[in-house]
Structures are given as C-alpha cells and as structure tokens.
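From: lab user (bench 3)
To: helpdesk
Subject: output format question, protein + S-adenosylmethionine

Hello, I'm new to running complex predictions and I'm not sure whether the block I got back is the full result or only part of it. Here's what I submitted:
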Amino acid sequence: MVESVEEHYGSEGIVERIVQALSDAGFDTNNLDADVLAGADEFHIGGREGTLHVASAVDVGPGKQLLDVGCGIGGAARFLARSTGASVTGVDLTPEFVEAAIELTDLVGMSGLVDFKVGSATDLPFLDDTFDAVTMLHVGMNIEDKNQMMHELTRVCRPQGTVVVYDVTIAKAGDLPYPMPWSSTPQFSFPEPVAKYEEAAASAGLQHLSSSDHYDLALKFFNEPPASPPPVSLGHLMGPRMLEMRDNAGEAVNQGLISPVLMTFQVP
Ligand SMILES: C[S@@+](CC[C@H](N)C(=O)[O-])C[C@H]1O[C@@H](n2cnc3c(N)ncnc32)[C@H](O)[C@@H]1O
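Helpdesk reply: Thanks, we reran it on our side. This is the complete output you should expect:
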C-alpha cells in the first residue's frame, strides 16, 4: 500500500540499476555522456522531444538561473543547463530522486552547472525573486492545490521571468486506469483540464502567453516505440511496475482522456 507521493516514486538503488544497465550495454561508465541517460531520466510524455518543447519555450541563457520544479532524477535540468547555458537548480519531493539526480550529475561531469535540493512545489525552499525562469514537467498531476502551486512558481521567479509548465491534463471526462506513472491509486492523483491551470496561474498574477496541446506527441510516444530501444529506460527508474503504468497511460491517451499540454506564462 503506497502511503505518499514520495513512496510511489522512491526506491533504493536507482543509480546502481542505471549504471549496471549501461555497463551491460558496453558503455564506459566512468566516461558517460549525459544524453545516454535520456531513456531513464526524462520522465514525461515524449521524453527528449517533450524536453525540447520546454527548452524552446523557456527564455534563459548563460549567466541566468533556472529552477526546475519536481525535477525527478534531473534529466530535464541537465538538458536545460546544456542547451541554454543557464545555471539550473532542481527541486523535488522524493529524496531518493534527489540523491540519484546529484549522483548522476556528478557521473556525467555536470556538478558545477546543476544542483539539486529536496523540497515541495507548494512550499518552495527559496526566497522570493530568486530565479530568472521556472520550469515544471509532469508534476502538477500529483498536486491538489493548483493555486498554491502556481503561487509558489510565481513567487520564486523574478519580474519578466518565464514560467513553463508541461503537464498531463484531462482532455475528456472518464475513469483513468491505475496505476498511472504518477500515482499508484487515485488518492495522490489530481490531473485537471488545462483551464484549471490557466485559472490558477491568473490567480497567482501570471500573464498567460500560450498553451499548446501535444496530443500527437503522446500518441507517437505510446504507440510507436523506437526501432532500437535506448540502453536505459523508465523501468530502471521505477522498476518492473513501470510496464503496467505505461500501458495504462497509453490506454488513457488512446481513449483521448489525457493529453500533455505546454503552458507558458510570464511574471509581470
Ligand atoms: C512524473 S515525475 C517527472 C519528473 C521530472 N520532472 C521529469 O520530467 O523527468 C514527477 C515528479 O514530481 C515530483 N513531485 C510530485 N509532487 C511534488 C511536489 N509537491 N513537490 C515537488 N516535487 C513533486 C515527484 O517526486 C517526481 O519526481
């Protein structure tokens, strides 16, 4: 019985499982490129393609500071640091994910560019106006209070900064099958239609720039697996239960119940 969000996600031995799989696949694990982790460390619909959409929406560059909220084991944070040149901080509720994020970042030689901290999206451990931009990928489905979540993303972002949210949203009413990748049961699952996010953002004072639905990417992600699978996968992150969670998410996408949406906002 899973008692919390952290318990759903966390497990011992994440880095060991990933490193072992890479070693078995013939990689020199003392000399790894960050990209090789992409199958396991980008835990959102579309994987790298989803991260690229976020990277093109976020407006930062060298000398700027970006916060990735609900960073998981840090895949998007590392990619955003490499692709934008900004310094990136990741924050996540699950201690085992934060530990793995720190170890993997060290393993790929990026510790000077990206750092990580345990913390909650609804009570971020940062002062007001700390970051030039804030991203959040596939986290809001675990958070009931969208107003508080948006308020916190806004609070830590400087004036004129961008807030980019890429989340699984409800596209059509209907019962979702569980376990889902973000929750084993409905108890910790709060996906909402995109309008709910936009309302919460407005109540936090954010200016809405755009929302784009990436349903086609979701259909491709679940129905057209790559011809050659990557050396590591979300199974190494979440264990064997990932198969059922992925099948359920794919079924919900195919039924048109859920869809990933990229929302971009600006702090006035
Ligand atoms: C589906 S994973 C996505 C991870 C990462 N953003 C990515 O795209 O690879 C959801 C993440 O949200 C984190 N999370 C859930 N609720 C949270 C909260 N209230 N505050 C911070 N992190 C949270 C989980 O621990 C998990 O790492």
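A quick orientation on your result: The first strand starts at residue 65 and ends at 69. Let us know if anything else is unclear.
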